[in-house]
Design goal:
The complex is a heterodimer of chains A (524) and B (112). With 524 residues, chain A is an alpha/beta fold. Chain A folds into three domains: 141 residues, Rossmann fold, CATH 3.40.50.1980; 128 residues, Nitrogenase molybdenum iron protein domain (Rossmann fold), CATH 3.40.50; 175 residues, Nitrogenase molybdenum iron protein domain (Rossmann fold, 3-Layer(aba) Sandwich), CATH 3.40.50. In chain A, the strands form three sheets. In chain A, strands 1-12-11-10-13-14 form a six-stranded mixed β-sheet, sandwiched between helices. In chain A, strands 3-2-4-5 form a four-stranded parallel β-sheet, sandwiched between helices. In chain A, helix 12 runs antiparallel to helix 13. Chain A starts with 18 loop residues before the first strand and ends in a 19-residue tail after the last helix. Chain B is globular. Chain B starts with a helix and ends in a 12-residue tail after the last helix. Chain B contains four helices and no strands. Chain B is 66% helix and 0% strand. Chain B has one domain. Classes of the chains: A alpha/beta (524), B mainly alpha (112). At the A-B interface, helix 11, strand 9, helix 12 and helix 15 of A face helix 1, helix 3 and helix 4 of B.
Chain lengths: 524, 112
């Protein structure tokens, strides 16, 4: 795997060790991009800060908590409502966020009194919420405000409340990954084991590294409940604060996003002997294997096979319809940390696309190992990418679509490359069997959008077709397909609803015959 | 033998995640336990471990062994000695790719 040097980065020679091309016959032992190093100033990196990783990514999805940042209001504003981790309590944590709004005078004279008053005001404004997570920012950390002491004072004055303190100011690590690490260790050390849960099943799991983006967690939880499994806690999507304090009583940790929360699973294994099972919720084969493993662990594999059979029969014909039309399309898989390896093989195998590049904004070398292992030969793997390198890669690789965040997605659109939001999705959820078909549909819609096809024409020099004014996606996608493929019996486009989560939320215990009747009170 | 080993190793690399735990000692344990269980299952052993940590290794191995039988039918024609030799080579290769030959500098960090 030769290291790849971007033309635009020859002036930053240290960037060369951050990109490799997977060559024929080469292995992970030949080369691996460097990872989790300090961001190079001026490189226009795609990374965020450690405060963002702690609060925005992991802390705020907890649904029954007042999330308060001690710092300037900009930190809080920029990490509010920009990620679609919905919850089944009417999205309380998306609607409300809290900040102490530190000003210059607080930086000079200290802001602990301001913090204490803000905490008391927040609990008073929402008297039904007794839990809080409190986040350090750069400003409050640099002046040495002791937020732990303030939180302890409040907990003494208000005995019914519990406050989790996260000391992860922006400068604590090279990227948001530093924040993931900090909050995982802090939660483990300060909160796990402080609540005893009600156990309502013989099969109890923590679902770790799942943030309920557009309902992913609720899709997966439905599978688990159909198997009779109690999801004791979800770290942290649609998760409850007290449920997460009870993590120590689970039989198994089912881990999705290892990048953000493998630290927690490792510590739970060492201290409480809870095994860590890494799974994929994306892709029919990978998801089926994941459900089988969970079923085997508890001796209920027949229940897993029931779900796999039913879901595959329902959704495979629709996935295959899109696969016929996406075969050979080139995509760049450019997410934050873990989707490069969750998706790299599954989208190639099950949707027929060619992954020409993978990257990770804040991933470590472990993520690159997984991503490169699962990618095909010729893929360009980039660590800590920046805007100029991404543009150069797109000009060189000419992808039909990229899966990335909305910020790089915007400059992709400017050079007429459609993008899908890999962090928060376009029309998710994308996990589960139906979700995977929704993802395929979104890719299809992006690549065959008549507007994007039109946008590729340059009116200053290209011939603009005037004979055909009406074009549909199907006319574009089926233009080169054989009649046999176009009319393949049993294959069809996506037939699901716009919002699939509402139906899941309407389910009752009658829909889960394997769950015990008294499991209504289980912590989630 | 080499091409058979590479087929089995490539399958793990494309489909599995258990081999990429955080630290070198975790990967040594994962490779040792899961590949030993895989060998046992391929040789017809039907033991199901009671200890939950062992059981977690066993489930990864059980699904891997089943996948091997489906995707590599030649494996069902091998005897116990051949399977043992084959899986020993797979284990060595996996240890090289994920531990001893890995360029991942975090493998030796003492903390999680």
């Amino acid at each position: 795997m030769p290291h790849h040097e971007f033309d635009c980065s020859t002036c930053i020679p240290e960037r060369k060790k951050h990109a490799v091309v997977k060559g024929p016959g080469e292995t992970l032992a030949d080369a691996l991009p460097a990872g989790y190093l300090s961001t190079i100033p001026g490189s226009i990196s795609e990374r965020g800060c450690a405060y963002c990783g702690a609060k925005h990514v992991i802390g705020t999805p907890m649904k029954d908590v007042l999330h308060i940042s001690h710092g300037p209001v900009g930190c809080t504003y920029d990490t509010w409502q920009t990620k679609r981790y919905i919850s089944d309590n009417d999205n309380f944590q998306l609607k409300y966020t809290f900040a102490t709004d530190m000003k210059e005078k607080h930086v000079i004279f200290g802001a602990e009194k301001l913090l204490k008053q803000n905490i008391l005001d927040a609990f008073k404004a929402f008297p039904d919420i007794k839990r809080m997570s409190l986040y350090q920012t750069c400003a409050s950390a640099l002046i040495g405000d002791d937020i732990n002491a303030v939180a302890a004072e409040v907990m003494e004055e208000l005995p019914g409340v519990d406050i989790f303190v996260c000391n992860s100011p922006g400068f604590r690590g090279p990227s948001q990954s530093g924040g993931h690490h900090t909050i995982c260790i802090a939660w483990f050390q300060d909160k796990v084991g402080t609540v005893e849960p009600e156990i309502t099943s013989d099969y109890v799991i923590n679902y770790v590294g799942e943030y309920n983006i557009q309902g992913d967690q609720e899709v997966m939880q439905d599978y688990f409940k159909r198997m009779g499994i109690q999801v004791l806690s979800t770290f942290t999507g649609n998760g409850s604060y007290d449920g997460l304090r009870a993590m120590h009583r689970a039989h198994l940790n089912v881990l999705e996003c290892a990048r953000s929360s493998e630290y927690l699973c490792n510590e739970l294994r060492v201290k409480y002997g809870i095994p860590r099972l890494d799974i994929d919720g994306f892709g029919f084969d990978a998801l089926s294997d994941s459900l089988r493993k969970i079923g085997l662990f508890f001796g209920i594999q027949d229940r897993a096979e029931e779900i796999i059979k039913a879901e595959t029969e329902r959704w495979k014909p629709e996935l295959d319809w899109y696969k016929e039309r996406l075969m050979g399309k080139k995509v760049c898989l450019w997410p934050g940390g873990s989707k490069l390896w969750h998706w790299a093989h599954a989208i190639h195998e099950e949707m027929g696309v060619e992954v020409v590049s993978v990257y990770t904004k804040f991933g470590h070398q472990g993520d690159m190992e997984k991503g490169i292992a699962r990618a095909e030969e010729g893929a360009l793997a980039i660590d800590d990418p920046n805007e100029l390198e991404s543009l150069e890669a797109m000009y060189r690789l000419k992808p039909d679509c990229i899966f990335t965040g909305k910020r790089p997605g915007e400059y992709a659109k400017k050079i007429r490359v459609p993008y899908l939001n890999a962090h928060a999705y376009h029309n998710g959820p994308w996990k589960g069997y139906e979700g995977w078909v929704r993802f395929a549909r979104d890719i299809y819609n992006a690549i065959y959008s008549p507007v994007h096809q039109l946008a590729k024409l340059d009116i200053s020099k290209d011939e603009i077709p005037t004979g055909s004014g009406f074009v549909t996606r199907c006319m574009l996608s089926d233009a080169t397909l054989s009649e046999e493929t176009k009319n393949a019996p049993g294959l069809r486009q996506y037939t699901g609803k716009f919002d699939v989560i509402q139906d899941l939320r309407k389910k009752t215990t009658a829909d889960y015959p394997y769950l015990r009747q008294d499991s209504l009170t289980q912590l989630v | 033998m080499n091409s058979k080993v590479e087929q089995l190793v490539n399958y793990i690399m494309k489909h599995c995640l258990w081999q990429f735990h955080s630290r070198a000692w975790d990967r040594e344990r994962q490779n040792r336990e899961i590949l030993t269980w895989t060998r046992n299952i391929l040789c017809g052993d039907s033991e199901v471990p009671a200890d939950r940590l062992d059981r977690c290794h066993w489930v990864d191995a059980k699904v891997l062994a089943n996948s091997y039988r489906v995707h590599f039918p030649w494996i069902s024609e091998l005897g116990t000695t051949e399977i043992t030799e084959l899986m020993k080579n797979v284990h060595e290769r996996m240890d090289y790719l994920t531990i001893t030959g890995s360029k991942n500098l975090e493998l030796t960090d003492q903390h999680y």
